[in-house]
Amino acid sequence: MSKWLYIVRTNCKNPDREPEFNDWYNKIHIPDILAGTPAFTRATRYESHGMFETPSKYLAIYEIESNDIEQTMMAHRENVDRLRAQGRMADLTNLVAREMYIQKAT
Asked: pTM value?
């Protein structure tokens, strides 16, 4: 089974609503993503310390275990579409970048 990291860099569109954004991301979004895409095994969020210049304030790292990452990401997109249709996606998210990494064999 291959291990992957899905890196998502975001900002909150409205700084006045940042507590709401973080509450939604931590208490609703991450549990929804983990529950709706079985290959997603863990998620952790970070906030920029400001030591280095970065275009995003927030970083989410999703750990994935999958031998077919294309199929896994298709299931993830379907899950996000389903969540959007259910009104569970926030309008506060400004997506800066997404990246995918596979663990290298040692």
From this structure: 0.94
